[in-house]
Amino acid sequence: MTPADSPTVVAAGLSARVAGRALFGGLDVTMEAGRLVAVLGPNGAGKSTFLRMLLGLHPVAGGSLEVLGHRPGRRNHDIGYLPQRRSFDPSVRIRGVDLVRLGIDGHRWGTPVPLLRRLMAPGRDDQERRRLDEVIGRVGAGGYAGRPIGEISGGEQQRLLIAQALVRRPRLLLLDEPLDSLDLPNQQGVAALLQRICADSVTVVIVAHDVNPLLGYLDQVVYIVAGEALAGPPEDVITTATLSRLYGAPVEVIRTPSGRLVVVGQPEAASFHAAH
Asked: Do residues 205 and 67 touch, judged by C-beta distance below 8 A?
């Protein structure tokens, strides 16, 4: 058992390769419990591959990587994972609460038989119901969890998918582009939700293109660009000098009178960043 105050993720000189091609190298990062970490960079840089490495689904090409005190893949029962967002057709009738329940027993073969379950594990249904109510309330989805998933908004769907990833009480939560296709209010709502999740000593690692809705909540940034990976506090990484070097092109970071940071000069990096 890994002590609760031990680092969640420790990478030293970490590198990744895909089909013989180097993706990135030299990543040094330590993620403590309760931290919100954004993994940023252009398409194809290796952001999703990094999440797969944390799960033990992609080999480490060089350096070292520990997840919850063990080699990747050994503690996946303590990890919640939400892959790139799925879209639900309006005709999908499964209820939100049943989607969340899949996080408990969706890995089992066949259809659950209620009577058999009660005989094999008395009280289990009551325990699961309490856990579902708890996690659905935690993400603020109690008002619509009983509705068909295809009938609710994208932001509501995303909250229920996060609840599905949380239902087994993970210590590490990995989210791949959870803000994709959401409007700005929903992006900010999900970002605030992730901060509340971190308050319960869960480490949250989120892959994102636009850091704008997140920066006011972030503890660390991992930037993967052009084969290089750099990690640190947002104020140390998101600077003119650092981003210009990473992108190999002039990138200017400007602070506006309102305190917002604007990144200018590189198409992939050009986005607005809210300051703390």
From this structure: no
Cα 239 to chain centroid distance, Å, stands at 24
Query: Using CA atoms in the order 179, 185, 188, 192, what is the torsion angle rounded to 10 degrees?
Result: -120
Residue 156 has φ and ψ, to the nearest 5°, of: -70, -40
Q: Compute the distance between CA of residue 208 and CA of residue 234 in angstroms, rounded to an integer.
A: 14
Work out the number of other CB atoms within 10 angstroms of the CB of residue 202: 21
pLDDT at 260: 66
Model confidence band, residue 123 (pLDDT cutoffs 50, 70, 90): low
Amino acid found at 90: P
Convert the pLDDT of each residue in 72-84 to its tens digit: 999 999 999 999 8
What is the strand order of the sheet 36-40 is part of? 62-67, 9-18, 21-31, 228-232, 220-225, 36-40, 203-207, 172-176, 79-82
Q: What pLDDT, in 10s, does the model give residues 169-184? A: 999 999 999 988 788 8
- Output the CA–CA distances (angstroms, integers) from residue 271 to 42, 77, 264, in the order listed: 12, 36, 7
